[in-house]
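Entry 14. Structure prediction run on the chain below.
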Amino acid sequence: MVKKVVAIGACPGVEEILSMKGYSVEHVEQKNVLDVLRKEGIEAVIVDLDNTARANVVISGIRHLYPGLWVAAISDDGDSGQISRALKAGASSYVVKPVNEKNLTMGDGESEIPEEPATESKSQPQVFLDDPRKVFPPRFYNAFFVTEYGKLETLRAERYNKNFSVILANIEGFNNLRKKLEKNELLEFLKELIKSMMKALRDCDVIGMVEDKKLVVILPETDYFGSCVSVRKLKKAIEHITTKGEPYASVIFSNVTYPRDGKGYGELLGAAENRIKEQREGTWLKLGFEDKPFWEAISVLLEGKGYEEKDIASFDLGKGLDLPVFFIDRLQEMVLQEISQDPRKKGVLYIGIRKISQNLPILKAVDTMGDTTTKIFIVGEGEEGRWGLNNAIPLYLNDPRLLETFFIFFLREDFSYTVVCRERWGEQYSCFHTVDQYLIEGLISKFQRDYSLQEQI
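Output returned:
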């Protein structure tokens, strides 16, 4: 079988030399590289740096997507700085033109590559940022690589009409850690943190450091709900290191998705930064809900204390009040209408109705809905297996707290809403509702965990 090599750029003399070694060389336009590399049997790529735009970005992208592929860089320029940048981007070899049979090898011989110049660390941050391969696990990249790869992923997503997501992880109180720990202790902590995060990620995901206290993850071909799943996995993975271990360190995660939250990598990173700030100022962190069980958090919110009305609004309804009890039915109907208007959007909906009974209007409404990608769960007390619903899964939970509470937890990629109403006395209810996405995500996660339900986000 003929061995195949892809050539990007002019690559003068390459085809003649490699054909004598039994290779078939295919010259490919830069914009078509990813399409061609999907083919089987390609053993190597040669990139002509002299006439390939953003050549190091191309090399780094190929190296990440196809880590076992031989990537040779060729150029008229023998400058040590350019050689170093190409090798750092992921080139397997660097050849100074003119190419010949001796210096152009495809992994089947020794290549004469000028030694990469040594660089001195000017300060502790430089060790973290500029050469992470010296102190962190393989496949953990520096800020330059991650930024360039983010730009490359944007081009790919735009071309193939795909999603991709970005997760930003901010280590809170990093400066205090720097003061508290010796340099080697801080490095060990970061190594363990990064190692645990990498175990929770897929092989195709890219992780690196953009600042000493900020880590970024790029998730190719991942929509918003997929990124929510990744955030949940990351939180679990580092729990023993941060919240339960020493030194204690709080890590805030934010996730954004192309093109929903930004048209390019820079916009996505900016949106992720803004969401970190929103979480710092939000109810979830201010009221310390991370360490509280589900029903304790609900009780705090129903009390109407400790948070601003712009985030959450409390109200009463029921017998003798301005809002009647059937207002809850209207809220349920409105959420179902929202789902029906765009049934293709992914989402998750939990409706707590106290007792699951076949004659309830909400069950009839759900049963007659068309197909939807939103997962709908009806929560309450009842006899399991009595009947099925076309568009929802009944969750039969025997808990006296559920018998006195109505709730809606609705989270979709572009919309979120929650309302909880607990009976006080005489058919009167204390309620709160909110559109705070982070609070709703957290409450859903706690509800799933506390009742040992299959996680949906």
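The chain has three domains: 3-96, 124-281, 289-450.
Filed with the rest of this week's runs.
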